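Example record

One chain of 446 residues, shown exactly as stored in the release files.
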Amino acid sequence: MHPFEEHIKNTIESRGLLRLSSPVLVALSGGADSVALLSVLVSLGYDCVAAHCNFHLRGSESVRDMRHAQEVSRRLGVNIYVRDFNVKERMAHTGESVEMACRSLRYAWFDDLLDRDRFQAIAVAHHREDNIETFFINLFRSAGLPGLTGMDFRRRYVVRPMLDVSRRDIENYLADKGLEYVIDSTNAQNVFLRNRLRNVFLPDLEENFPGALNAVESVMSHLRDANRLLDYLVEKDTALYRRESGKYDVKALLDDHGAEQGIRLMYAMLKNVGLNASQVSDIARAVSDGATGLRFPIGNDTFAELDRGVLSVHTSFDVHNNDIHTVTLKRDVLTPVHIAVTYHDVAEFCPERDNTVMYLDVRAIEGDATFAIRHPRRGDRIRPYGMNGSRLVSDILKDAKLSAADKRRVWVLTRNDIILWIIGIRAAAHFSVGPKTRRYLRLKAD
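Predicted structure tokens for this chain:
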């Protein structure tokens, strides 16, 4: 195995990016990075299908890129999807820049392909220099901590197996494999910020301060770790002050942590519902003054209301999906919990005595079915597999001897609001594998 392939293999396995058992959609532009990624994944035994976007922005070059992507796919023995896009029409309709319009069109198509053909993920070929460029772009825009962490190896269904390898590593690998690639002529045009960073700033930085790029990469890794720790600690503290969905005891929070630290924590807790830093400071001041009945607008049909120290978020629909997360079982579920979804013929059925695994007849996803993941509600009932009748979810959680904090972290999977699974605890009898089953889904919760 080529050392470059060995490195990517270790990255994929150590970070749990891909499974050999499910197909992968690979974004293939025809450039060096994407050609290398497709070659590596094929060499590692992944079932790959390439996807090429033709935006028709560079005349004959766009046609050249498409044909080269098709030739690379043929040589590597993979199928390729090609899609033509009208970028100008999209820009006129949305007001987006060229870059944003292309990105929106590209990922909307990828998302459709993921659902239609049940790919486990879309693999893209961002590498180390791409990530460092992103860091500086966000730095110049005064981004906060999340923006300075750069791209991650996984974001929902997008995986980046080459994020810690350099462009030079990629070019050396392609030379060893005898694989050709196309070069986008616009990459040399320094009118774009990213191109100026790539062609001028970063080479000059490395020349004058050898090792600077390695140092930036290391700092980004530290920032990612710090951001994950911060998210964990905020979620842990949020559980202490969340009274129920959309309600937060901000008075208790401020009493426990004091005004200065309490405001920081409250902002970290509430920014995801749409409240800004100024509003959070106003809420803290109102609590200190003993004010009540105050409302703080968030957006259309959404506001926060302060009532005797408890802040409630009211909305006619769940704008930020804080409680109800609509999901599809046509691919892995990544949020709010990770659930690996695989499809099998019934001849493979060998049930496991494991509460983190459940099985569904494939008919569950047919017809007019809406799947969602949410926290249990008062009065929720489930018809447990292997039992007659139904039981209160609260009774099952009580039997499981969960702590109050653990109960608040429980999720349920529903189909058209019927509970199919108290995730990791108990499966329902609905759509269970039986004599009429031909294919089934295996759901595995982390």
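Notes: The CA atoms of residues 78 and 229 lie 40 Å apart.
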